Amino acid sequence: MRGASRRPIDSSVKSSRKGTGTPAEATSAHRLGVCAEPVDIAIPLYDRFTALDAVGPYEVLSRLPGARVTFLAHEPGPVTTDNGMLTLTAESALEDLPRPGLVLVPGGPGARDLLDDEPMLAWIREAHEHSDWTTSVCTGSLLLGAAGVLDGLEATSHWLELETLEGFGARPTGRRVVEQGKVVTSAGVSSGIDMALVLAARIAGEDFAKAVQLMIEYDPEPPFDSGSTDKAAPELVRTIRERVAGFR
Amino acid sequence: MRGASRRPIDSSVKSSRKGTGTPAEATSAHRLGVCAEPVDIAIPLYDRFTALDAVGPYEVLSRLPGARVTFLAHEPGPVTTDNGMLTLTAESALEDLPRPGLVLVPGGPGARDLLDDEPMLAWIREAHEHSDWTTSVCTGSLLLGAAGVLDGLEATSHWLELETLEGFGARPTGRRVVEQGKVVTSAGVSSGIDMALVLAARIAGEDFAKAVQLMIEYDPEPPFDSGSTDKAAPELVRTIRERVAGFR
Question: A198, A216, A238, A248: which to substitute to probe chain B, counting the most B Cβ within 10 Å?
């Protein structure tokens, strides 16, 4: 299990344009002949995680040269998402992959249930100690925080949980992707796609990341401009804050 | 199994702001007290589908008031994605949900293997006959085309497969989301998120769609501007075209 080498974002891999995994042909990048260090990517799942938090970055990172993405859980087997409508399979137990090169912790309402779950937090701590990259999407950052990873660092989370980060010694920021050395956190749910493209550039070079972006045709055209608290109607932001508070 | 009523995009549901499913609390919209017609959403999976094609729209559509998303396959059970690294569970067989209100067909390299698969195509035909919405992401449109749904309509697909649509009597367009009455197709992989927000607005009103956008914090910030053939470097587009052709 070797992690990815970290490189500055502008040192693109020369052969990167050759390594374009294609949705049309299921060719992962290494099958197209790119020679690069393999990247062992671990995505821990848990009951009531949010699917897009995990699957967005997976769709980008799985296309890295030599990438191997493994979905983990306390026990191998089915793991159901926050709304109960979708089940993903965790291929391995946490203990089966203690030292991945890249850790990506997704968020979801279930994250709150694990803030004192020692097996998960110990796994994150051990993985982080040896990782090249320790990352989270949405409220996955609360688990990084609970494991002690964010102490003294800037970090982000879902906008409804930003303040919670302070309890773990982190400095919350509203930026969408927050890089602090090898620790990278991203904002709510869909932000993991942006973070994964940043990571792809760091790991395999900008040209490669651009190729992945083109393959997944990530040229977003949201029909509305309501995706952040800065842009949404203040009344909407207030209404959601009130309603969520009512369910705590 | 009742489908969603179709409404013009500007007739928002008055109570829509109340129905904001929250990743922080796993509250699907109907649990927050919205009264609206239930939406039965069927997403057929198949071997070597592309995960984000299905999970992006699921993350939006599952938050609709009264939404019930069901992942289907020829047989219930595990279905593995294009790169072999992720398995989702199909809860039901195709025949278990013959008339959903909304059909969403994801793409992936496996779609090409089903272009003459009568059980899948017959299911799409029957579902489309009764649906309120028949939709696809990426090369899912090839399956709609093979089922005869796109004859004479404008439609889109992954940029590498746009021309293939002509063989089904469709008129390919490069637009990201293509609405033709109740038939809505979207471009490659990540475009399903944009399409799902358009559908959310049509079904539950713009205010509700904006609330979902905020909850999934969909305020995209791609680190590069390489997500379409118009924007990516011509050399990159050419290289990918050549390489994919080599694998056919």
Answer: A216
ipTM of this predicted complex? 0.86
A131, A164 in Cβ contact below 8 A?
no
Give helix A206-215 / helix B234-246 axis angle, nearest 10°. Answer: 60
Global pTM value: 0.86
Residue pair A194/B223 in contact (Cβ under 8 Å)? The answer is yes
Question: Which residues are within 8 A (CB) of B118 and not within 5 positions of it... i.e. 6 or more apart?
Answer: none
| 3-state SS class at B43 | strand
Picking from B52, B58, B210, the nearest residue to A216 by CB comes out as: B52
Q: Does A210 touch chain B (CB under 8 A)?
A: yes
Q: One-letter amino acid identity for B36?
A: A
Active site residue A35: no
CATH number at residue A204: 3.40.50.880
**A79 contacts A41 by C-beta, under 8 angstroms:** no
Q: What is the pLDDT of residue A82?
A: 96
B189, B108 contact by CB (below 8 A): no
- Would you say A53 and A106 are in contact if contact means Cβ atoms under 8 Å apart? yes
- Domain-embedded: residue B173: yes
Touching A: B residues 97-136, CB under 8 Å:
107-110
Distance of CA A66 to the CA centre of its chain: 18
Q: Does residue B104 lie in a domain region? A: yes
- pLDDT tier for residue B243 given thresholds of 50, 70 and 90: confident
Question: Roughly what angle, to the nearest 10 degrees, separates helices A234-246 and B206-215?
Answer: 60
A27 domain-assigned? no
Note whether residue A108 is domain-resident.
yes
Task: Count how many domains chain B has.
Answer: 1
Interface test with A, best of B15, B18, B25, B27 (most A CBs within 10 A): B25
The domain containing residue A135 runs over which residues?
A: 36-220
Q: Which position has the higher pLDDT, A21 or B220?
A: B220
Q: Residue B245: its pLDDT value, please?
A: 65
Contacts of B220 in chain A (CB under 8 A): 190, 193-194, 218, 220, 222, 227
Cβ contact, residue pair A28, B193, below 8 Å: no
Task: Report the SS3 class of residue B54.
Answer: helix
Contact of A112 with A161, CB cutoff 8 Å: no
Distance CA A128, CA B157 (A): 40
Query: Does A200 touch chain B if contact means CB atoms closer than 8 Å?
Result: no
3-state secondary structure A104-154: EECCCHHHHHHCCCHHHHHHHHHHHHHCCEEEEECCHHHHHHHCCCCCCCE
Strand order of the β-sheet with A87-90 is A77-80, A87-90, B87-90, B77-80
pLDDT digits (tens, 9 = 90+) for A43-72: 999 999 999 999 999 999 999 999 999 999
